[in-house]
C-alpha cells in the first residue's frame, strides 16, 4: 500500500497546468517560500535534513561595565550554564559563550553546521584565540541574516567541537535609528537558536532558484518572454514539490535548474554589469568607534569564508583606519586579507584614512587623508589604490579631482548624488573636472546604491537607469549589507551567478576588481560628458552646522597642527639654529594627525552621530589639543633659543611670529601680563597704550613680514598711528531689517571711527551703517540692519541632524534683544558689549570689536543654546549688487548664484564655505569671515551665516551647550579678485603667535623665513617629509612646502627662503619626487603656477 505524499497520483482532465490567474499565482509563489504560517508545509520544510539542540552545551560569561575585552581577558572570566530562551542585555553589553558540540550518531558522515541566533552580532573564536567568522542574527528570516558556521564537512559520531562566541548586544544597523535620540537601555536580546544542523542541499539550492524566479516574474516586464517562462516553470516547481518527499524535491529542483540552464545566452550583451561585493562600515555613526573595530572583524572574516568557498567572488573595502584596527586586533584575519588580496579577491580601495567628509575638511586635511591612507595600503599590500572610493559622503569639493590625482587616483566612485532631493544628476559615467581643470573618470552606479541585494530590480535598474548609454555600455554594481557592516550574504553571490548570463535579461554580470572596471571603462567609453566644479549634494545641508563644537575643534586642531609643523621645521632647519638637540616629533604628529583624520569621518564631523560617539570625539580632540600645544611650546623654545643672550641688560619685549605667506600690515595682539618675567624692565620708551577688560596688554603690531619673527615693544606706536574713537549718537528713525520684521524708532546709538571705516550701531548693537572711507561706499543696504540674529523653524522632512530644507527660510523671526554698552573705548580698540535674551531658554553675549589697525568689525560671541528644532543665523543686508557670491573652498573658492532662477539655483539655498564668503561688485565688496562656521546662504544682497541648530536625532543633546565663536565683517576696496579677502580670512584664523621674550636692546629679533613675490600664491604647509632622505641629525633636512594659487590666476612666484637649499624638486601629495625646481642664489625657488593649482615642493636643506 502506498502512503499519501510519497508518489504522485495521475490527475484527470490535465488540471496540473498553469492556471490563468496571474496575481493569485504570484501570491502562491510567495507563500511557497514564506516563513511563518505555512513554513511546515512549504519549501522551508525542506531546508534541513537534521537539527539538534541537545548536542549543544552553552556556558556564558557576562562582561562587566559594558566593556569590550580581548580573548585573553575573556578566558579569565567565570562561565555559567545558559540555554536557548534566555535574554541578554542591555544594549552595548558583551557576552562571551563557551560552546561544546558533541556529534550525535545520526549526524555521522554529514556536513554539520552550528547555528546561533540572538538577533545581534557575534564573532566565532577558536579555543586558541583565532577569530573565525562573524554572524548576524535577525530573530527570523531576511536577507540580513547569517547565523551558521560550518563545523565539519564530514562528521564523525561522538566527535567534540569546542569554540567561543563573542556576542555584541547591538543590532547590525546600530544602537538606535537615525532619528531616535537615545539607544534604548532596556533592549534585551533573546537567544532563539543554538543548534547543530545538516542542510538539505537540494532544498537550499531550490530556495535560491525559486526566490530568483519570483523576482523575474514580479520585476521584469510581463511582455518579456523571460517573464512568461519564469512564471510557467515556477508554477511547475510548486506542482512537483511534496512535503517530506526527496524524489519530488529533486524533481522540483531539476525543473528550476533546467530553467536557468536553458536560459543561458550566447554572444555579447547590450550592457555589461561589473559586480563587486562591498561592506560599507561607517567608522562611527549609530555605534562608537570601538564597536566599528569589531564590526570590521566580523564582517571581513565572513567574506574571507565566502572567498574560500568561491574563488570567483570579489570583495572590496576602503578606509585604511579600519584595516589598521583589524591588523591590530585580529592579526590572523589580516593575514587572510593579505593572502586573498594577492589572489585578487579581497580588494583594498579608496586610498584615504577614512571615508571623510569633503565639505568641512581643510585642503591640507584632505591631502593628509590620502597621504596616510596610501602610505598604509602600500606598506601592507605593496601597492597604492587607483580608485578613489567615497560612496556615502555629503557632497564633493571641486578640488578633489586635483588632490586625488596627485595621490595617484584618476578614477572616482560614488553614488550619494543620487540622493538629490530637487534635481536629478544627469550622468552616471563622465569626466569630472576640478577647480583647476584636472579631470578624473567618475562613475555613479546606476542602481543608486552601494549596498545592493542582488535582486532582479537592482540589476534592471543598473541598465534602465544608466544615463550614458550613448557613451558606454558598462556599469558597476556594489552589493552587500552596509552601514552596519556584514557585507554580501552567500545567497546574493549565488543569485549573481544564476543571473550573470541569463537569456532575456538586458545585461551580463561578471565579478570585478573596481580598478579593472575603471580601466576597461576608460579604454572603451567614448565622448564622455564633462562636469565642471563641485558635486553639490542637494540634501543633508544641515551638516554644515550641526554639532558646532566638533566643527570648531576640527578647525582649531587643523590650525594647531599646521603651527606645530611650521615651527618644528624651522627649529630643525634654521641655519642659525642654536638647539641642535631638537628632534622633529614625527611619531606624535602622525598619531594626533590620525585622530583628527578619524574624526573627519563623514558621519562624525558633519554632526550626525550618536552622543556616545561624540564622547570619544571630544576626548580625541582634547588629546590633540594638549599634545599639540606641548609640541608647539617645545618647537618655540628651540626656535627662540637662537635669540637668547648673555647680556645682563635684557629687556622684556614680545616676539610675534607670522606663519602666513603675506605680511601683516597692522593688527593687535593680547599679552597675558602674568607670563612676563618678574622684575625685568620693558623694552622701549612707552608702556602699553591700552589694557583689555580682562587685564591683558594690547600691543599694536605693524609691518610684520610674511613668514617671519619680529620683536615689538609693548608700547609700539608708529608715527602714522591714528587712534580709534567711539561716541554716542542719535540715530535716524524708521530703519528695518531685510524682512521688514523690525521698526527702529529714533534713539541713541554708537558711532565708531578709525582710519578705515565709520560704523554706526543702534542701542542693541545692530549695524545701522558701515562706511568704507577709501571708497566712500556704504556697505549696509539702505534702511536695513546688519548683525541681526534670526531664529528659523528647522523641521526637516527626513533626517533631523542632516537636513535643513528650503522652506525654513519662510518661517523666521528676530531674536529678542538686549542693550549695548561701551566696554573699551580706545585708543587701540573699541568694544561694545551686549547680551541678547534670544528666547526664554537661550541667550547670547556679543562683543563688537573694532581696532585702530584695520577696517574689520569683529563679533565675538558666547551663546548658551537650549532650543528644539530652531536654527540661529546672523544676517547682513549688504549694499552690493551681484548675481553670485564667492565662498572659500579647499585651496580656492567657488562662486554660487544669489538668485533662484532655476531649480539648480534654488537647490543651493544653503551652501558650504570655509573662512570667508564675499559679495562684491565693481570697485567694492564686503566679506563675512569666521573662525569655525561653514553654513551660508546669500539671496540678493542679504548674506546669512548659520550659527547653531538644535536637531534631536540621533543625538538629542546636539549643540545643547555653551558655544564661543567669532565672525567678522570686512568691507574692501575693489571686487573680490582685486581684494585681499583671502589674506584677511587666512590671517583671521591663523593668528600671529605671541611669545613674550627677554631681548638684548642691541640685538633685536627679526628673521624672515619665507616670502613670496606673488600674493595669490599661498604657502599653506611647511613640514618635514614622511620618509626623509637623510637620517635624523645627519646635517640635512628633508622638507615639504605646499602652496596653492588662491584667486584663479597664473604666473611665476619667486619664493625666498632662509634655508640653504641643496636640492629642490616638485612632488605630489604623496611626496614622490618629480621634476626639479629652479633655485636661484641657493635660497630662492622659482615656481610657475596655474589657476587654483596645488604645488608641492620637496627641499633638501642644510641648516649649516
How would you characterize this protein structure?
With 1104 residues, this protein is α+β, with helices and mostly antiparallel strands. The protein folds into 6 domains: 32-43 and 203-263, no CATH class; 48-199, Jelly Rolls (Sandwich); 271-532, 7-stranded beta/alpha barrel; 541-642, Glycoside hydrolase family 38, central domain (Substrate Binding Domain Of Dnak, Chain:A, Domain 2, Up-down Bundle), CATH 1.20.1270.50; 732-989, Beta-galactosidase, Chain A, domain 5, CATH 2.70.98; 1009-1103, Immunoglobulin-like, CATH 2.60.40. It contains 18 helices and 58 strands. The strands form 12 sheets. Strands 35-36-37-38-47-44-43-40-41 form a 9-stranded antiparallel sheet. α4 (225-240) packs antiparallel against α5 (246-262) and α6 (289-309) crosses α7 (320-329). The longest helix has 30 residues, at 611-640. It is elongated and about 105 Å long. The model is unreliable at 1-7 (pLDDT under 50).
Amino acid at each position: 500500500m502506498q502512503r499519501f505524499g510519497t508518489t504522485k497520483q495521475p490527475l484527470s482532465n490535465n488540471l496540473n497546468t498553469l492556471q490563468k490567474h496571474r496575481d493569485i499565482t504570484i501570491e502562491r509563489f510567495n507563500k511557497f517560500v514564506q516563513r511563518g504560517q505555512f513554513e511546515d508545509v512549504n519549501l522551508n520544510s525542506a531546508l534541513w535534513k537534521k537539527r539538534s539542540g541537545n548536542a549543544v552545551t552553552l556556558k556564558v560569561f557576562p562582561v562587566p561595565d559594558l566593556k569590550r575585552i580581548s580573548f585573553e581577558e575573556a578566558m579569565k572570566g567565570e562561565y555559567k550554564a545558559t540555554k536557548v530562551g534566555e535574554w541578554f542585555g542591555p544594549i552595548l553589553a558583551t557576552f562571551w559563550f563557551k560552546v561544546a558540540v558533541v556529534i550525535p550518531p545520526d549526524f555521522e558522515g554529514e556536513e554539520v553546521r552550528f547555528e546561533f541566533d540572538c538577533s545581534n552580532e557575534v564573532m566565532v573564536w577558536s579555543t586558541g584565540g583565532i577569530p573565525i567568522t562573524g554572524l548576524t542574527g535577525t530573530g527570523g528570516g531576511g536577507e540580513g541574516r547569517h547565523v551558521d558556521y560550518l563545523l565539519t564537512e564530514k562528521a564523525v559520531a561522538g566527535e567534540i567541537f569546542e569554540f567561543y562566541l563573542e556576542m555584541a548586544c547591538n543590532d547590525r544597523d546600530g544602537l538606535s535609528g537615525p532619528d531616535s535620540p537615545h539607544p534604548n537601555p532596556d533592549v534585551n536580546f533573546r537567544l532563539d537558536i543554538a543548534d547543530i544542523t545538516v542542510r538539505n542541499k537540494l532544498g537550499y539550492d531550490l530556495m535560491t532558484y525559486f526566490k530568483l524566479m519570483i523576482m523575474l516574474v514580479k520585476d521584469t516586464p510581463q511582455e518579456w518572454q523571460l517573464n512568461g517562462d519564469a512564471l510557467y516553470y515556477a508554477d511547475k516547481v510548486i506542482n512537483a514539490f511534496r512535503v517530506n518527499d526527496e524524489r519530488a524535491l529533486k524533481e522540483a529542483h531539476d525543473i528550476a535548474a533546467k530553467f536557468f540552464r536553458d536560459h543561458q545566452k550566447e554572444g555579447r550583451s547590450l550592457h555589461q554589469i561589473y559586480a563587486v561585493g562591498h561592506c560599507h562600515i561607517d567608522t562611527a555613526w549609530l555605534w562608537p568607534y570601538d564597536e566599528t573595530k569589531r564590526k570590521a572583524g566580523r564582517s571581513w572574516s565572513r567574506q574571507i569564508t565566502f572567498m574560500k568557498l568561491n574563488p570567483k567572488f570579489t570583495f572590496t573595502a576602503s578606509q585604511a583606519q579600519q584595516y589598521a584596527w583589524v591588523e591590530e586586533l585580529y592579526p590572523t584575519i589580516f593575514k587572510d586579507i593579505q593572502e586573498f588580496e594577492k589572489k585578487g579577491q579581497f580588494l583594498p580601495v579608496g586610498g584615504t584614512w577614512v571615508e571623510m567628509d569633503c565639505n568641512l575638511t581643510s585642503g591640507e586635511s584632505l591631502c593628509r587623508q590620502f597621504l596616510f591612507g596610501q602610505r598604509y595600503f602600500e606598506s601592507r599590500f605593496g601597492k597604492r589604490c587607483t580608485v578613489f572610493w567615497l560612496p556615502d559622503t555629503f557632497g564633493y569639493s571641486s578640488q578633489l579631482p586635483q588632490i586625488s590625482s596627485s595621490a595617484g587616483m584618476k578614477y572616482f566612485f560614488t553614488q550619494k548624488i543620487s540622493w538629490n532631493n530637487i534635481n536629478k544628476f544627469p550622468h552616471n559615467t563622465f569626466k569630472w573636472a576640478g577647480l583647476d581643470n584636472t579631470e578624473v573618470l567618475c562613475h555613479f552606479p546606476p542602481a543608486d546604491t552601494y549596498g545592493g541585494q542582488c535582486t532582479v530590480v537592482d540589476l534592471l535598474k543598473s541598465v534602465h537607469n544608466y544615463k550614458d548609454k550613448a557613451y558606454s555600455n558598462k556599469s558597476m554594481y556594489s552589493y552587500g549589507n552596509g552601514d552596519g557592516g556584514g557585507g554580501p550574504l552567500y545567497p546574493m553571490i549565488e543569485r549573481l551567478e544564476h543571473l550573470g548570463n541569463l537569456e532575456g535579461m538586458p545585461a551580463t554580470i561578471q565579478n570585478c576588481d573596481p580598478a579593472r572596471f575603471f580601466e576597461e571603462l576608460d579604454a572603451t567609453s567614448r565622448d564622455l560628458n564633462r562636469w565642471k566644479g563641485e558635486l553639490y549634494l542637494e540634501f543633508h545641508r544641515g551638516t554644515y552646522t550641526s554639532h558646532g563644537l566638533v566643527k570648531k575643534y576640527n578647525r582649531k586642531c587643523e590650525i594647531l597642527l599646521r603651527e606645530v609643523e611650521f615651527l618644528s621645521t624651522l627649529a630643525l632647519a634654521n641655519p642659525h639654529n642654536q638647539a641642535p638637540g631638537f628632534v622633529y616629533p614625527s611619531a606624535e604628529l602622525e598619531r594626533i594627525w590620525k585622530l583628527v583624520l578619524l574624526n573627519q569621518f563623514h558621519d562624525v564631523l558633519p554632526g550626525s552621530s550618536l552622543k556616545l560617539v561624540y564622547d570619544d570625539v571630544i576626548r580625541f580632540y582634547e588629546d590633540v589639543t594638549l599634545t599639540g600645544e606641548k609640541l608647539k611650546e617645545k618647537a618655540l623654545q628651540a626656535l627662540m633659543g637662537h635669540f637668547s643672550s648673555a647680556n645682563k641688560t635684557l629687556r622684556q619685549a614680545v616676539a610675534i611670529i607670522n606663519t602666513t605667506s603675506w605680511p601683516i600690515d597692522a593688527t593687535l595682539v593680547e599679552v597675558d601680563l602674568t607670563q612676563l618675567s618678574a622684575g625685568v624692565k620693558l623694552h622701549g620708551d612707552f608702556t602699553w597704550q591700552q589694557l583689555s577688560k580682562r587685564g591683558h596688554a594690547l600691543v599694536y603690531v605693524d609691518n610684520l613680514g610674511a613668514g617671519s619673527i619680529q620683536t615689538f615693544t609693548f608700547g609700539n606706536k608708529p608715527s602714522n598711528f591714528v587712534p580709534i574713537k567711539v561716541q554716542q549718537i542719535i540715530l535716524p528713525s524708521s530703519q528695518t531689517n531685510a524682512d521688514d520684521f523690525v521698526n527702529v524708532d529714533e534713539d541713541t546709538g554708537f558711532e565708531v571711527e578709525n582710519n578705515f571705516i565709520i560704523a554706526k550701531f543702534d542701542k542693541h548693537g545692530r549695524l545701522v551703517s558701515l562706511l568704507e572711507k577709501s571708497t566712500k561706499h556704504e556697505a549696509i543696504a539702505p534702511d536695513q540692519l546688519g548683525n541681526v540674529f534670526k531664529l528659523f523653524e528647522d523641521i526637516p522632512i527626513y533626517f533631523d541632524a542632516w537636513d535643513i530644507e528650503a522652506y525654513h527660510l519662510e518661517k523666521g523671526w528676530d531674536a529678542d534683544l538686549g542693550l549695548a554698552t561701551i566696554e573699551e573705548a580706545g585708543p587701540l580698540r573699541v568694544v561694545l558689549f551686549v547680551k541678547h535674551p534670544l528666547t526664554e531658554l537661550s541667550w547670547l553675549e556679543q562683543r563688537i570689536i573694532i581696532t585702530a589697525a584695520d577696517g574689520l568689525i569683529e563679533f565675538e560671541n558666547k551663546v548658551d543654546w537650549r532650543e528644539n528644532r530652531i536654527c540661529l543665523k546672523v544676517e547682513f543686508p549688504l549694499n552690493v549688487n551681484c548675481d553670485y557670491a564667492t565662498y572659500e573652498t579647499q585651496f580656492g573658492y567657488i562662486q554660487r548664484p544669489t538668485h533662484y532662477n532655476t531649480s539648480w539655483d534654488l537647490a543651493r539655498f544653503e551652501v558650504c564655505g570655509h573662512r570667508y564668503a564675499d559679495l562684491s561688485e565693481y570697485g567694492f565688496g564686503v566679506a563675512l569671515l569666521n573662525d569655525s562656521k561653514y553654513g551660508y546662504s546669500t539671496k540678493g544682497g542679504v548674506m546669512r551665516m548659520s550659527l547653531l541648530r538644535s536637531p534631536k536625532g540621533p543625538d538629542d543633546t546636539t549643540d545643547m551647550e555653551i558655544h564661543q565663536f567669532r565672525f567678522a565683517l570686512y568691507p574692501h576696496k575693489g571686487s573680490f579678485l582685486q581684494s585681499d579677502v583671502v589674506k584677511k580670512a587666512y590671517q583671521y584664523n591663523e593668528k600671529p603667535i605671541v611669545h613674550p621674550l627677554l631681548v638684548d636692546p642691541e640685538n633685536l629679533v627679526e628673521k624672515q623665513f619665507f616670502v613670496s613675490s606673488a600674493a595669490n600664491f599661498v604657502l599653506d604647509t611647511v613640514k618635514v617629509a614622511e620618509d626623509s632622505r637623510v637620517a635624523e641629525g645627519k646635517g640635512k633636512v628633508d622638507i615639504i612646502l605646499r602652496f596653492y594659487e588662491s584667486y584663479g590666476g597664473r604666473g611665476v612666484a619667486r619664493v625666498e627662503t632662509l634655508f640653504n637649499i641643496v636640492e629642490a624638486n616638485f612632488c605630489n601629495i604623496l611626496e614622490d619626487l618629480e621634476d626639479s625646481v629652479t633655485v636661484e642664489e641657493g635660497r630662492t625657488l622659482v615656481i610657475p603656477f596655474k589657476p587654483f593649482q596645488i604645488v608641492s615642493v620637496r627641499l633638501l636643506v642644510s641648516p649649516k
